[in-house]
Amino acid sequence: MSLPAELPLRGLRVLNPRPEAQAAALSAALADAGAEVLALPLLAIEPLPLDAAARALLLDLDQYQATLFVSANAARLGLEAVADLWPQWPWQLPAYAVGAATRQVLEAAGLAVISPEREDSEGLLALPELQAVAGQRWLLFRGDEGRELLPDSLRARGARVDIVPLYQRSLPLEAAVQWSRLPALPDVVLITSSLVWRHWRALAGDAALRPLLVAVSERVAAQLRAVGAQHVLCAGAAQPGAWIDTLCRWRRGDTHGIQ
Fold first, then answer.
1. pLDDT tens digits for 41-52?
2. Quick one: 177 and 219 in the same domain?
3. Pair 167, 73: CB distance under 8 Å
4. Which DSSP string corresponds to 14-66?
5. pTM for the model
6. Residue 4 counted as domain residue
7. Domain limit, last residue, from 119, 136, 168
8. How far apart are alpha carbons 24 and 35 in whole angstroms?
9. Which of 151, 168, 185 is at the close of a domain?
10. Alpha-carbon distance 115 to 6, whole Å?
11. Model confidence over 84-102: pLDDT tens digits?
C-alpha cells in the first residue's frame, strides 16, 4: 500500500545529529513528513576566546578584499567579534557564505552576502569572484579546524588567506549515554559534515555503516563510500528541504541525481 502523500516518510527512523540548539527546524520538518526523529547531537559547539593574533586580524578588517564565513556559527560569532572592535562593518567589504543558513545570519545583520547555489566549499570556490584572487587578502571565519579546501585553494590561486578561529567542535559528553538509550538503530543517519561522520563512527562502531547514510555534500559522500559504506545518498545542501526531498525521492525509488 502506498504512503499518504502528506506523510511520505512515515515509519522511517531518522537520526538528526545537529547540535541541540540548531536541531529544531530539521527535526520538525522530518516529523511533519512522518519520520520518527531520533535526536542525537553529535557536535557540541564551544566558542573560543579571541587571542591577540585574531584581534589583530580583525583590527585590519578594512584592509581585506573579502571575507568568508563557513557556517552559521562562524557568522554569528564572527559578527559578535567584529562588533566588539568596529562601530560598523566596512561598507565596501564583501561577505561570502557557504550556505543559506550562514547567509541568513549575515543578511540579518545588514550585510550584502554572496553565496553559491551548491552549498559547500566546492560551490563557493566555483564562484566567478573567487577565480582571479592573486594578490588579494581574504579573511576566513571558521572553527579551529576544518574546511581546509577553502584556504588551500585560494592560496593556490595566489591569495593571502588569514583565519580567525571562533569555536571548537567536539563530541558531546552525553552522546554515549543518549546512544545507549535509543529505542532502535536508525534507518537513516544524516551526515552533516566529515566530523559528524567521525563522531558517528566512533559512537556506533560496527553498526555505523548499517543505516542509509545521507551526506550533506558529494565530498562527504565520497568519504563515506571510501570507507566501505554501501548505502549512501547526497542531499547536496544543508537546508531541511534538501534532506526531506532526498529521503522522499529515495522512498519513492527515485534516486536519479542524488547518488
1. 999 999 999 999
2. yes
3. yes
4. EEE-S-GGG-HHHHHHHHHTT-EEEE----EEEE----HHHHHHHHTGGG-SE
5. 0.82
6. no
7. 168
8. 14
9. 168
10. 32
11. 999 999 988 999 998 888 9
